[in-house]
């Protein structure tokens, strides 16, 4: 049965980011399956356009200070009127902050609603100190009681809900574009641009913000060179920490790439790298790491995050020693480690993710969670 699936999300940058990638891939999948997806996101100006992922409506949103331009939807009355006009059959909300009220709104109207947990609220609130966990538990409790289902992409992401007794949890992993992110993207000329013959090419690909801990990649490069490893680092991404990282990287063989509009260029760099570092400690899935694996490049990840669950034996999980993790990757024959990385990524596809999300939608009800 065809459904009008209205999707809402905050913190969606217009050009890049894992959430944007996931929303687009899921929307394209819903559309291909015969549904009518409509995505509502914040932006600088209002727009309403038909796209490959369905209809995308942008509503002026408020910039969150210190985030490098991320916006959130705050105009509840305006958004409520828009939802009433759109008459959704189902609601999918990728936000746990200013949009939580939409779960109750949907329930009052008999509209099945799911919330997708793309971030760890408990993890984010650790930056607030010891009071973080109680607040996270309170807000998570309100979330799981407001929606028919909570979709988590890993068991790690689901743990903060199960800890407080939530039973309406569905676990559906995200996917990767296995054609775009492919070992065939390896480029000798690109490698020559960033590394000299014999050098180890390391890549960090991600937003340069505090919760992603990008400084760990810089520290790893410095530590490797102190250990006598002739390595270079390329950092792909932007964010509020960029200037500070450039200062930290001064005097070391570290290159910063500006935003890359062409995803094929990112795929080529990932495929050409020897190792990718994904140092974020509160990643709930890690699309950039999965994209690296799809390109045949092993990833060193934080053992405290969900990434060990995603990369499996194709990566190396460390507590703090990312330089040691890189060395551990390099001890394996290049052909074997690249084949293992690709094989691991092939276990995650967007068609499977879309099917999983649609199954959650069709199984959800509007029965209150007690």
UniProtKB/TrEMBL annotation:
Limits of the Glycosyl transferase family domain: 197-344
InterPro entries for this protein: Glyco_trans_1 (IPR001296), Glyco_trans_4-like_N (IPR028098), Glycosyltransferase_grp1 (IPR050194)
Superkingdom per UniProt: Bacteria
Statement: the UniProt record of this protein carries the keyword rRNA processing: no
Keywords carried by this UniProt record: Glycosyltransferase, Transferase
UniProt keyword Hydrolase present: no
SUPFAM superfamilies: UDP-Glycosyltransferase/glycogen phosphorylase
Domain Glycosyltransferase subfamily 4-like N-terminal span(s) in chain numbering: 17-179
Protein name: Glycosyltransferase family 1 protein
């Amino acid at each position: 049965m065809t459904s009008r699936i209205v999707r809402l999300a905050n913190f969606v940058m217009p050009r890049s980011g894992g959430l944007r990638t996931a929303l687009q891939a899921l929307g394209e999948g819903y559309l291909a399956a015969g549904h009518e997806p409509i995505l509502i996101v914040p932006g600088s100006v209002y727009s309403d356009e038909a796209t490959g992922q369905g209809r995308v409506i942008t509503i002026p949103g408020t910039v969150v200070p210190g985030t490098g331009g991320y916006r959130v939807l705050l105009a509840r009355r305006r958004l409520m009127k828009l939802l009433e006009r759109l008459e959704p059959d189902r609601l999918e909300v990728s936000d746990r902050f200013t949009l939580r009220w939409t779960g109750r709104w949907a329930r009052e109207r008999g509209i099945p609603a799911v919330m997708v947990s793309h971030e760890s609220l408990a993890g984010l609130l650790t930056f607030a100190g010891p009071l973080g966990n109680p607040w996270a538990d309170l807000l998570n409790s309100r979330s799981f009681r407001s929606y028919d289902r909570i979709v988590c992409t890993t068991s790690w992401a689901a743990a903060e809900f199960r800890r407080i007794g939530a039973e309406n949890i569905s676990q559906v992993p995200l996917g990767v574009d296995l054609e775009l992110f492919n070992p065939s993207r390896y480029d000798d000329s690109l490698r020559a641009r960033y590394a000299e013959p014999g050098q180890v090419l390391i890549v960090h690909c991600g937003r340069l913000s505090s919760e992603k801990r990008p400084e760990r990649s810089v520290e790893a490069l410095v530590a490797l060179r102190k250990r006598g490893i002739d390595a270079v680092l390329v950092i792909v991404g932007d964010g509020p920490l960029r200037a500070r990282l450039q200062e930290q990287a001064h005097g070391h063989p570290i290159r910063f790439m500006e935003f890359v509009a062409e995803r094929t260029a990112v795929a080529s760099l990932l495929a050409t790298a020897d190792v990718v570092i994904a140092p974020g400690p509160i990643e709930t899935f890690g699309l950039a790491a999965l994209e690296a694996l799809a390109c045949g490049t092993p990833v060193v990840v934080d053992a405290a995050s969900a990434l060990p669950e995603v990369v499996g034996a194709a990566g190396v999980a460390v507590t703090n020693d990312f330089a040691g993790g890189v060395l551990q990757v390099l001890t394996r024959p290049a052909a074997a480690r690249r084949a293992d990385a690709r094989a691991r990524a092939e276990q995650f596809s967007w068609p499977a993710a879309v099917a999983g999300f649609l199954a959650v939608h069709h199984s959800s009800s509007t029965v209150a969670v007690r």
